[in-house]
Each structure stands twice: as structure tokens, then as C-alpha cells.
Write a structure and sequence with these properties.
9 helices; binds zinc ion; alpha/beta; single chain; 35% helix; 14% strand; eight-stranded parallel beta sheet; binds N-{4-[(3-aminopropyl)amino]butyl}acetamide
Length: 341
């Protein structure tokens, strides 16, 4: 299938992140995308560049002031006397005011970010915009009639909401793809999120909508990031009531339990009868992933791909997480290969 790729992703290289009390090299690295690119090229997928989709399309999903904040954050950090990478250090928890957007850069960062693991460097915005355009380009390719397309998005997107960023994510690539499909005429779109982590941003964006079904399988937030969303009792609100389905799974989950949950997810998608599918494709469910605790093996990714392809829907696959770099390419290619057959 067509795989949207651009070397602009490499402009985002976070350097270090705070992980369990230590500054460690970021898990979300440029070589992730290069390993995927190599594996997809070797498997015969056609690499195409993202289109110059107008930035106004971002506003179907994101708040305009948030977009301008992300674009300018690095320059402001330095013009306000800070050095190095842009990392927030204080957040409006219970008892603090969430309605204030402080004027200074540190307060603004605390207002828009929800964790300290998502650094902004000089090239971050270029990569973020290119990733968003890659996802929307894959959506355009499917809108124009291809049965499936893949966007090699880096940085990933599913933790980013309308006006918040975190979890290595800045703009929500999968939500932008879903919105693009709707804007081009599909009436109902399902998003299935198979990344190890709950897609809190995607859930929040579509929480009160009935034109998007959001279904997620993920590590139980009782112990797994992002901790504060992704519980089974979250089902949507207003018109969106019943259009969110969370299937949290315990650390240590292997294929049998995973497949049972995936069957439940696919049943709910069939009942919704969407006109297109977006897959938030994280492969951090892999047994050797350094920050996750499921036990899927390489041979399981073609099975996931086959089950997704069996839905028979026009499908946009969007890259999310996956940090076992040596195997990331073959795991992603395993999912995509099932669509070609
Ligand atoms: N102690 C994605 O896979 N850090 N994001 C967790 C746990 C953030 C993962 C720290 C993990 C974000 C797209
Ligand atoms: Zn993840």
C-alpha cells in the first residue's frame, strides 16, 4: 500500500526525558521511523511524500491558540531567557486555577502540557506539522479510492487533545485523519487504537460526538501511562454517549487475552457500521518493548492486520508508539502486509 513518509520527522529529536527519576535518552527516537521506512520499502510498499495540506485543516481538531503556542514555544523559551529543551515543570492540579492561561512561557507550558516527557526542540514544529500532513495525506489517498494507506507519523499523536500535549505527542494525527475523512464526505468513522497506551487525546476530541466511534485496547491506567484516562466506565457523553469503548488489559497480557479483547472491539465497530476506519497503530504491545508490559510476539502482528482488514473498510493506518527499535519495522510491516493480501 502507499506509505506516507518524509525525512522531516528527523528534525524532532527530544534528547533526554525524565523517566522514573532519571534523565534518560528519549525512547521516541528518529531511528524508529528509519527502521519502519526500511522495512516497508523492503516489503514493496510505495513510499510517497506528504502533500502541502493547508494548516487551516488542523483547526478541525485543535484549538487555534494551542497550534500557535506549539509553533512558537521554542522561540519564546529562548527569548524569555531559558536554555536547552522546552520542558514544563508545573501543572494546574486540583485546587489550582485551570481557567488562567499565564502570560509567561513556564505558566503557558503548564497550561498546555500534561506531562514532562514531551520536549520541544528547535525542529519539533516542522516534524509535528509534517506528521499531521502525513496522516491527512493518507486520509486523502483513501478518500480518493485506495482501500488502505499508511502514515509513518513521527512524532506520534494519540495522546494530544484539542488543546493539550503530552506522551511524546503534539498534534493528534489519527484524529486529523478521521476528521479529514469526514470532511471529504464519509458520514461515520471508527477509530481503533491498538497502541499499548490509552489514546486519551483521541477520546477527548471525539468524546461528545456520534460521527466518530473511538475504541481502545490498552494497558490498565490503574498502573500504566497515562494513568488518568482510559477506564472501562468512560463511554462518551451527550450525543457521544456509547461512542467510546475502553478495554483496559492488565500488565502481562499475552495473545489469547489480547485477541479476545480485539474481538470485542471489532464487534463494536461492526455494530456501528462506519464508512471508514482509522487505526492508531502502536506496536509497543510487543514483548520486548522497553516501556510497556504486554507480551505480543512478531507473529501476532500479521494476525492483528488480518482481523482489521477483515472489517472490509477503507482504512487509514497511523503510526503511534513502539520503542523496541530493532523489531519495530517488521512488526509494522506485519500489520500492513495483511492488508495487501
Ligand atoms: N513511567 C506513545 O506510545 N512516558 N506514548 C511514560 C512511565 C510516556 C507513550 C513514563 C509514554 C508515552 C505514543
Ligand atoms: Zn504507546
Amino acid at each position: 500500500m502507499k506509505a506516507v513518509y518524509t525525512p522531516l520527522h528527523a528534525r524532532h529529536e527530544g534528547g533526554f526525558e525524565l523517566y522514573r527519576g532519571q534523565l534518560v535518552p528519549t525512547f521516541e527516537t528518529p531511528d524508529r521511523a528509519e527502521f519502519i521506512r526500511a522495512a516497508l520499502a523492503a516489503a514493496g510498499h510505495e513510499l510517497v511524500q506528504p502533500r502541502e495540506i493547508p494548516e487551516s485543516r488542523l483547526l478541525g481538531v485543535h484549538d487555534a491558540e494551542f497550534v500557535e503556542f506549539l509553533r512558537g514555544a521554542y522561540a519564546r523559551w529562548h527569548s524569555e531567557g531559558r536554555q536547552g529543551h522546552v520542558i514544563p515543570s508545573g501543572f494546574p492540579a486540583r485546587g489550582l486555577r485551570r481557567d488562567r492561561r499565564p502570560r509567561g512561557i513556564s505558566g503557558s507550558l503548564g497550561y498546555y502540557a500534561f506531562d514532562a516527557s514531551t520536549p520541544i526542540v528547535a525542529g519539533t514544529w516542522d516534524a509535528v506539522l509534517a506528521a499531521a500532513r502525513s496522516a491527512m495525506t493518507a486520509a486523502a489517498i483513501v478518500s480518493e479510492g485506495e482501500p488502505a494507506a499508511y502514515a509513518l507519523c513521527r512524532p506520534p499523536g494519540h495522546h494530544a487533545a484539542r488543546s493539550t500535549y503530552g506522551g511524546y505527542c503534539y498534534l493528534n494525527n489519527a484524529a486529523l485523519a478521521a476528521q479529514y475523512l469526514l470532511d471529504e464526505g464519509r458520514r461515520r468513522v471508527a477509530v481503533i487504537d491498538v497502541d499499548y497506551h490509552h489514546g486519551n487525546g483521541t477520546q477527548e476530541i471525539f468524546w461528545e460526538r456520534d460521527d466518530v466511534l473511538f475504541v481502545s485496547l490498552h494497558g490498565d491506567p490503574e498502573t500504566e501511562y497515562p494513568w488518568f484516562l482510559g477506564y472501562a466506565d468512560e463511554r462518551g457523553a451527550g450525543r457521544g454517549e456509547g461512542h467510546t469503548l475502553n478495554l483496559p488489559l492488565p500488565a502481562g497480557t499475552g495473545w489469547d487475552e489480547y485477541q479476545a479483547a480485539l474481538d470485542t472491539a471489532l464487534d463494536s465497530i461492526r455494530r456501528y457500521a462506519p464508512e471508514a476506519l482509522v487505526v492508531s497503530l502502536g506496536v509497543d504491545t510487543f514483548v520486548a518493548d522497553p516501556i510497556s508490559s504486554f507480551k505480543l510476539e512478531g507473529r501476532h502482528y500479521p494476525l492483528i492486520g488480518a482481523l482489521l482488514a477483515d472489517l472490509g473498510l477503507p482504512t487509514v493506518l497511523v503510526q503511534e508508539g513502539g520503542y523496541a527499535v530493532a523489531e519495530i519495522g517488521s512488526n509494522v510491516a506485519g500489520v500492513l502486509g495483511a492488508f495487501a493480501d
